[in-house]
Design goal:
Blueprint (H helix, E strand, L loop, with lengths): L5 H13 L7 H23 L5 H14 L8 H20 L6 H27 L9 H20 L10 H10 L1 H36 L1 H15 L3 H12 L3 H24 L4 H9 L4 H35 L9 H10 L3 H29 L4 H4 L4
Helix pairs in contact: 2-3, 2-5, 3-4, 3-5, 4-5, 4-6, 5-6, 7-15, 8-9, 8-11, 8-13, 9-11, 10-11, 11-13, 13-15, 14-15
Length: about 375
């Protein structure tokens, strides 16, 4: 046996470091087996059922071939190209008209499983260091796109009535054609009710938590009252707030204040108790008073839990404002639009409002997360990328 030269060994080592083989996981094996079975069905149906559909049959053959090499990281992008090809083939089949056969549905199932397999393998490669972390955004992006594509293909292929479930293309068209209305609803619900209620409710919860921490009397008397307020149902609070503060955005902001107050209160109190006795004793040896200890030790230690409450409140504020608008509002607002358009059977407009609320809520949550990373950069969850 001839000895391998140092340069050859070095090249082999660098190649293995760049593209190390990933061990199989049980989930990947199960998905790979499912891809193989459905791609076999796609291939057979594309060739034999009714008029042969050779592009779909080709997609089934390629999907079957990719299972045989799915342990090679270099094949990630080939799988992604195959996903794009399968998407185009299925939309072409819809555009051609005629009856949708079994080959279409088998190809759709194969497409979904192929996207799932790609996401699993890419996630494993990123976690193992064989793929760059900058590709991490591809996994959630592909997941969202896959849901929209499958939604579109199912609703159009199965002929589901749009009043029950409109396709994403119809919802997007409604968004583009109703932008002035959606913008007015956004200003009424988000910029007024949600933001004002979020700031006041979270701020009040934080200040009351500081007062409760300072006073044992308030801890025994006010904290149980906060538990009582948190248990009040929103459908019971909203009509009362409308009667108290009128039909405009002030009553919706009041509902948001009630909903966001208690999560901030509880999280801040728990966070203030997160610092240990050793750290507090050390502050006492430095002759630090209550507020000095609060600013330099206890609030920094409580910051992760405070930001958790702020992230939770982004969702609660949006839900509270929209639901409150069901019980009385001017002729503008996201909740008003949803309740009105449902009565008119304009389901695409309802979904347009839901889509806008989802995008705004996600952006709001992401903004708070970015602020959290900047403020609590020292925390282990931020350093390890888990926040």
């Amino acid at each position: 046996m001839s000895a391998q030269s140092p340069s050859a060994r070095n090249e082999t080592s660098q190649s293995e470091t760049r593209w190390p083989r990933q061990p199989f996981t049980p989930l990947q094996l199960a998905i790979g087996l499912a891809v193989a079975l459905f791609s076999l069905g796609t291939l057979a149906a594309g060739l034999t059922v009714g008029t042969p559909n050779y592009p779909i049959a080709l997609f089934g053959a390629l999907a079957l071939a990719t299972v045989a090499r799915f342990w090679w990281p270099v094949s990630f992008w080939l799988d992604f190209a195959l996903f794009l090809y399968g998407t185009g083939i299925l939309f072409s089949a819809l555009g051609a008209g005629g009856e949708i056969g079994s080959s279409f549905w088998l190809a759709l199932a194969t497409l979904w499983l192929l996207a799932w397999l790609f996401a699993e393998r890419l996630s494993q490669a990123i976690a193992g260091g064989s793929a760059s972390a900058r590709f991490g955004f591809i996994v959630p992006t592909l997941f969202g796109i896959s849901i929209l594509l499958v939604w579109e293909l199912i609703t159009r292929g199965a002929g589901i009535p749009t009043i029950l479930l409109p396709p994403p293309s119809m919802i997007f068209d409604r968004i583009m054609n109703s932008w002035p209305i959606l913008l007015a609803d956004f200003r009424q619900t988000i910029l007024k009710a949600v933001l004002v209620g979020y700031v006041l409710g979270s701020g009040a919860g934080f200040l009351v938590a500081i007062a409760i921490d300072r006073s044992p009397f308030l801890k025994r008397g006010l904290l149980p009252l906060g538990n009582f307020v948190a248990a009040l149902p929103i459908i019971g609070i909203a009509p009362i707030m409308v009667m108290w503060f009128g039909f405009d955005w002030q009553s919706k902001a009041a509902v948001v204040i009630v909903m966001t107050f208690f999560p901030m209160l509880v999280s801040t109190i728990a966070g203030l108790n997160a610092s240990g006795h050793i750290e507090r004793d050390l502050m006492r040896t430095y002759a630090a008073g209550y507020f000095s200890t609060l600013l330099r030790l206890r609030l920094p230690a409580a910051a992760p839990m405070i930001f958790n409450a702020l992230k939770i409140n982004t969702t609660l504020a949006l839900i509270g404002a929209i639901v409150a608008e069901f019980f009385g509002t001017p002729t503008v607002g996201m909740g008003f639009r949803i309740s009105t358009e449902v009565g008119r059977m304009n389901v695409d407009m309802v979904w347009a409002e839901i889509a806008m609320a989802a995008v705004v809520g996600s952006a709001f949550y992401g903004l708070v997360t970015l602020i959290e990373r900047a403020v609590t950069f020292w925390h282990p969850t931020v350093r390890d990328g888990r926040a």
